[in-house]
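Slides due. Your pick:
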Amino acid sequence: MLLLASCFPTLVQAQWSSFSDAKGRFKVSLPGKPAQFADSPPTFNLSTASGMYAISYTDDHEGADWTQTVNSERDVTIQGLNGKMIREKEISLGAFRGKSVTFECNLPSGPFTGPAAGQMRIYFNGHRYYMLIGLAPKAAKAEGITKFLDSFQLMPASKVP
């Protein structure tokens, strides 16, 4: 999955609110309402003057190797942003193992350009895969990015009557 800075749509300014996607079975806090940028994989993006936020998920990775899948997605995404990984650590969320990755990149276009600091969280349980990315100008404080990433929650699948 290649997520380029150019996929972040229009600039918005708003208060933080909860956003959820029933099909994706997640909810997260964002400083505005994201737009769905792509259907395959479902990808939601939001850009502000102080940050860019993206959430995507895919299914049908049955039998995929956890390490290979997560590392490949990490590498493709950072490479697509012309970035450099700074550090990573393993994390988890419910039954999902994950990685938290800090990186730097240089954005040629968007609501802000130039050096940017990025954080990515990837969660994978052997079937479903989630990726969250937050970017902020390198000189700015990234409190919004941390708030966004820390607010991510998995929702139970809805029961069909």
Notes: Residues 108 and 154 are 33 Å apart (CA to CA). The mean pLDDT is 87.
